[in-house]
Hints:
With 130 residues, the protein is an alpha/beta fold. It has one domain: MTH938-like (Hypothetical Protein Mth938, Chain: A, 3-Layer(aba) Sandwich). It has helices at residues 63-68, 87-95, 105-115; strands spanning 19-23, 26-29, 32-34, 38-40, 45-46, 72-76, 99-103, 122-126. It has a 5-stranded mixed β-sheet with strand order 5-4-8-6-7, sandwiched between helices. It has a 3-stranded antiparallel β-sheet with strand order 1-2-3, with helices on one face. The longest helix has 11 residues, at 105-115. The radius of gyration is 17 Å and the shape is globular. The N and C termini lie far apart (65 Å). It comes from Thiohalocapsa halophila. It holds the Pfam family DUF498.
Amino acid sequence: MSSGRFRLxxxxxxxxxxxxxxxxxxxxxxxxxxxxxVIIFPDHVQAHWWRQSGHRLALEDLATVLAERPEVLVLGxxxxxxxxxxxxxxxxLRNAGIDVRVADTGAAVEAxxxxxxxxxxxxxxxxxxx
Length: 130
């Protein structure tokens, strides 16, 4: 007969960046402020992220993300959702095994902070203005 004792093993806590605040044109991450678009990795921020075609996201714009091989990619399309994410870009990301979430940047920030509590390999690429 067993003693009825169980040993609880908690999952290891993975590094994660927390977005402290977002408003039009500015984002605060782990106490650091940024005023240009960023890509947020679990252990660092790629500041001054720029896309080849401005408000149209191409797969090439996410080369550093693809190299990281995240489980989840949260795309913030701007305060008013003006950054376009073409279907072919989404298809390529999903075919690479990435769960892609697209939302205006305010909602994307909330989703990222919530999801990164349970997903070790999560990345966010966010457009800060329109």
